[in-house]
Design goal:
Elements lengths: L1 E5 L3 H16 L7 E5 L2 H10 L4 E5 L1 E2 L2 E2 L1 H8 L7 E5 L4 H9 L4 E4 L5 H38 L8 E3 L5 E4 L1 H7 L3 H4 L18
Parallel strand pairs: 1-2, 1-3, 3-6, 6-7
Antiparallel strand pairs: 4-5, 8-9
Length: about 200
């Protein structure tokens, strides 16, 4: 797993690395590579040029404070899970960060191996599931648009012909225009020229 940590305190970044390395040795966390930077601008540059699979970001950075960092990050990494680091006095901002698109948040003061590992693994799984849901939604939308464009009854007559020139479908207006019933035409060879890959409207 390629992890990017955006944290301006080297000690906090080192502590995260140690906890995850310990978890990796015991088989609780998969092998990982961690990169740390201390500014949001640097993190965005890394994200633009490298395949990062998980982002851990502090809410207090030299060039971005609070939710500004989350807003800028989520516009760039909509498909990459983001976990926010926050202090005890920033619980509300941690929740707000989740509402803005972060998968979860962690309190620095209570970082433990099991909490860290569970949060990161859940964040990645949740992100994967959300992507699958979006892909299915998009597929259904595309199918609906295709149906509406090709099969939905409308004023124009439409006929679908396969590569062998056999009629596969015709809508009601096409039946009217041709003065024939679809049951009599399905599977029959089309008797007028039709170009492959071209949509021709009967009128």
């Amino acid at each position: 797993i390629k992890i990017l940590v955006i944290e301006d305190d080297p000690k906090d970044g080192r502590y995260l690395w140690e906890l995850l390395r310990q978890a990796e040795r015991t088989g609780l966390f998969p092998p990982f590579d961690m990169h740390q930077c201390d500014r949001l601008s640097t993190g965005l540059e890394i994200l633009a040029h490298h395949q990062i699979e998980l982002v851990i970001a502090d809410l207090s950075l030299p060039d971005a404070q609070g939710l500004e960092a989350i807003k800028r990050l989520t516009t760039k990494i909509s498909n990459t899970p983001l976990v926010v680091l926050t202090g005890d006095d920033d619980r509300d901002r941690g929740l707000q960060a989740v509402r803005l698109g972060a998968q979860d948040y962690l309190l620095k003061s209570s970082l433990q191996t099991d909490t860290l590992v569970r949060t990161l693994l859940f964040a990645m799984e949740r992100s994967r599931q959300l992507q699958e849901i979006e892909e299915k939604r998009q597929s259904l939308e595309n199918s609906k648009n295709h149906y509406d464009a090709v099969l939905k009854p409308e004023a124009a007559g439409k006929i679908i012909v396969n590569s062998m020139g056999l009629i596969q479908f015709l809508n009601a207006p096409a039946e009217v225009l041709l003065c024939q019933n679809s049951r009599d035409l399905i599977g029959k060879e089309v008797w007028f020229p039709v170009a492959s890959g071209v949509c021709e409207i009967l009128d």
